[in-house]
User: What shape does this take?
Amino acid sequence: MKLEITIGGRTRHIEIVSEGTNRRGALDGRPFEADAREVSPGIYSVLIGGHSFEARVEPRGPSLRISIGDREFSAEVSDPRRWRRRRASVLEAEGRQHVIAPMPGKVLRLLVKAGDAVEAGQGLLVVEAMKMQNEIRAPKSGLVERLLVADGQAVNAGDVLVVVA
Assistant: This one.
């Protein structure tokens, strides 16, 4: 697969050959090898040169928002057909949605309140788990029907946090 990716106004040329979870190819003519696995929708575990990274990739209009550690990038892919299919299946859900805690932790802050209109992928609240802050996002566009947690509250994996209708 050959792609042109623009990050920070700089266009990069990348060629990728997939062999299972292994990827090899060239970035601007420089060869690379990586092991990449999608551990959940839009979240990838990547091993390059003995260094491990977690990359979060989410569509934002015509571009992609990529978060790696505390760094965030906006990227545009010249042929985003693959990402359009994902956007429809990952971010937009139908009907009333119960947003659940993916892991045990503590609610650090609420980003919305009951009655607020939200867009698919918009942050609803921040949960701290294992000393990492995780922004929990809306699975669909709609209205925040109920908030079932408060700032500082401990939550268990599977607890319903927010209802979006």
Summary: The longest strand covers residues 30-40. DSSP finds one helix and 16 strands in the chain.
